[in-house]
Amino acid sequence: MTILRVVLGDQCSRGLSALEGLDPARDVLLMAEVRSECTYVKHHKQKIALVLSAMRHFAAELREEGITVSYSALDDAANSQTLAGEVARIATKVGASRIIVTQPGEWRVLEDMRGWERATGLPVEIREDGRFICPIDRFRAWAGDRKQLRMEFFYREMRRETGLLMEGPDEPTGGAWNFDAENRKPLDPGVRPPRPRRFAPDAVTKQVMALVEREFPDHFGTLEAFAWPVTAAQAEAALADFVTHRLARFGDFQDAMAEGEPTLFHALVAAAMNCGLLDPMEACRAAEAAYRKGHAPLNAVEGFIRQILGWREYVRGIYWLRMPAYRDTNALGATRKLPWFYWSGETRMACLRAAITQTRDLAYAHHIQRLMVTGNFALLAGIDPAEVNDWYMVVYADAYEWVELPNTHGMALHADGGVMASKPYAASGAYINRMSDHCRGCAYDVKKATGKGACPFNFLYWDFVSRHAERFGRNPRMAMPIRTLMKMAPEKVAAMKQEAAAFLAGLESGAATPDPGAS
Ligand code: FAD
Ligand code: DLZ
Ligand code: SF4
To answer: According to the UniProt record, where is the region Disordered (predicted)?
Structure first.
């Protein structure tokens, strides 16, 4: 009896649990491009092109192995345009006796999947997603009834369990778990980061790009610079390119930002990893091997491995532990609408302009831009987490709710009330000035917190600290800024609060950003 095996767009992995035990003589594999998945948020055009191209390439590879693939293209006349619709339609067409699928990455799709049995009248087996290093139940067990779910402690357990960068059962390589203190350098003016390898669109990708332009013309972003890997072989080449040319300095400049340098020493592997083209453990092992061979220093390699083995696994654990309530968290009571410049990039704030315009053109910004520029601004300005969440889901090629939501609600906005981070990642312009060269070319003056041309990050920061001083009063990690605020002249505090109010009112009125010469 035919088993229908369903593979979703972010499950383009040969080792997927849904493919285990597949019998090519008996089974049919279903992949379906559907409008509902392309539009549940209006994804960046490059994200849709990446996922559909990866799906088409993966289907072709499976067919070459002799596997029967039922592939619903987006423009097939018979396509019902929903996952449930295609599963029911193809199950009937092939006379399936049961359905096997791997657990999806998003709560919304799992809810949908739970209805497939009713929709098809067939048993549906939802298998664990073995592509993650830490199974969901393992994370739950770790979380147990701990009061604090700090990533660092989870990460150490993962190091012990995987043996990555370990010299013995409890001995981390180099004698420490974390070398972050070495990883906070601004970019040296003389350093030119090597450009990441680009993967020019082949015929399949070009066809998909034309389809995306035709079907989703009003989605955010441009397709011109599309250069993402779309096959497992290309994703491995992208990883190798990173390990060879950028890993060694990844640590040093992990938190740096620079005008005209959209990628610095980052890996650009999340987009491929999140749609299944690259195995996270393979990425960690490749980095460790580079260290063992003396090709990259420990601060770089440990920093990179921590991002994947630590942060990536941890945020996924938090997502499944806390959903569905996590999505509605808004601990700081933020209600403001997302300013229009998040879409247009039209702002006089150079740091935000750089992060947003590169996001539009590349569907990419690196972590510090996401956290300390667009995220920090949204935190300080009190933007509604639901609006911010939608923005991050739309704009990045690597965005899937399981990873995007905890990063947005937990890390950037402190909307989860401190589940993930012990204090909000709020910072004034001084931080951006220390870590980047954006301020030099900005219309605002980073040294000023009030008066004509004052940097908005400055007065918004102090306004934020003042608004939330009571809430964070007993948090030792917030003690310093609160003490500094208390020591400030009351007139200065009042002036900054007034500037913040006027600035935010200007944003609400639809101005791109208030004229720095106007106040
Ligand atoms: P690198 O800087 O080279 O890091 C290597 C890898 O580590 C990444 O590919 C990624 O797999 C992993 N990683 C690093 N930081 C994190 C993190 N905080 N959480 C999970 N994995 C991490 N990452 C996504 O994959 N998808 C998202 O939708 C996403 N949304 C984010 C939203 C906000 C507000 C913030 C602050 C961060 C978000 N991140 C997201 C995390 C991080 O910014 C991206 O993983 C990273 O920028 C991807 O680029 P890269 O591959 O060059 O990463
Ligand atoms: C992101 C995405 C897009 C744009 N399109 C499809 C699609 O047409 N068909 C499909 O199976 N999956 C797609 N995906 C990925 C899904 O949105 C993803 O599987 C869910 O968000 C669960 O992580
Ligand atoms: Fe950003 Fe302020 Fe610096 Fe301008 S001066 S780039 S707004 S931090």
So the answer is: 175-198
Over 90: is that where the pLDDT of 511 sits?
A: no
Whether residue 256 has pLDDT greater than 80: yes
Residue 189: the pLDDT is 87
**Quick one: pLDDT at residue 180?**
86
Q: Find how far residue 256's CA is from the centre of its chain.
A: 18
ipTM exceeds 0.90, yes or no: yes
| Alpha-carbon distance values, 398 to 194, 220, 331, 361 (Å) | 22, 15, 26, 14
Instruction: Please give the distance of CA 360 from its chain centroid, rounded to a whole number.
Output: 15
Per the prediction, the chain carries an average pLDDT of: 96
pLDDT surpassing 50 at residue 75:
yes
Q: Tell me which amino acid residue 320 is.
A: W
**364 C-alpha vs ligand 1 centroid, how far in Å?**
10
pLDDT value, residue 515? 62
Nearest CA, atom 2, ligand 1: 266
389 and 410 both lie in a single domain: yes
What is the residue range of 252's domain?
A: 136-196+246-322
**Amino acid 56: pLDDT:** 98
Separation of first and last alpha carbons in the chain: 74
- How far is ligand 3, taken at its centre, from the CA of residue 438, in Å? 7
pTM: 0.97
Last residue of a domain, one of 82, 105, 127: 127
Distance CA 344, CA 356 (A): 8
**Does residue 327 surpass a pLDDT of 80?**
yes
Q: Are residues 89 and 118 in the same domain?
A: yes
Assign 3-class secondary structure to 291-304.
Answer: HHCCCCCHHHHHHH
- Helix boundaries (H) for 334-451: 341-344, 350-362, 367-368, 376-381, 385-395, 401-405, 429-435
- What pLDDT was estimated at residue 512? 57
DSSP 3-state percent helix, strand, coil across the chain (nearest 5) = 50, 5, 40
Kindly identify the ligand whose nearest atom is closest to the C-alpha of 435.
3
Is residue 275 within 8 A of residue 12, CB to CB? The reply is: yes
Q: Would you say 276 and 13 are in contact if contact means Cβ atoms under 8 Å apart?
A: yes
* Ligand whose nearest atom lies closest to the CA of 440: 3
Task: Label residue 389 exposed, middle or buried (CB < 10 Å: 0-12, 13-18, 19+).
Answer: buried
Lowest pLDDT segment from 233-247, 367-381, 469-483:
469-483
How many whole angstroms from 377 Cα to the centroid of ligand 3?
A: 11
Q: What residue ranges in 24-162 does DSSP mark as E strands?
A: 28-32, 68-72, 98-102, 124-127
Beta bridge partners of 5: 29, 100
**Nearest residue (CA) to ligand 1, atom 11:** 270
- Of the residues 51, 81, 230, which should be mutated to test ligand 2's pocket, given the most ligand atoms within 8 Å of the CB? 51
Q: 322, 356, 371 — which closes off a domain?
A: 322
CB atoms within 10 A of CB 360: 18
How many structural domains comprise the chain?
Answer: 3
CATH code, domain with 474: 1.10.579.10
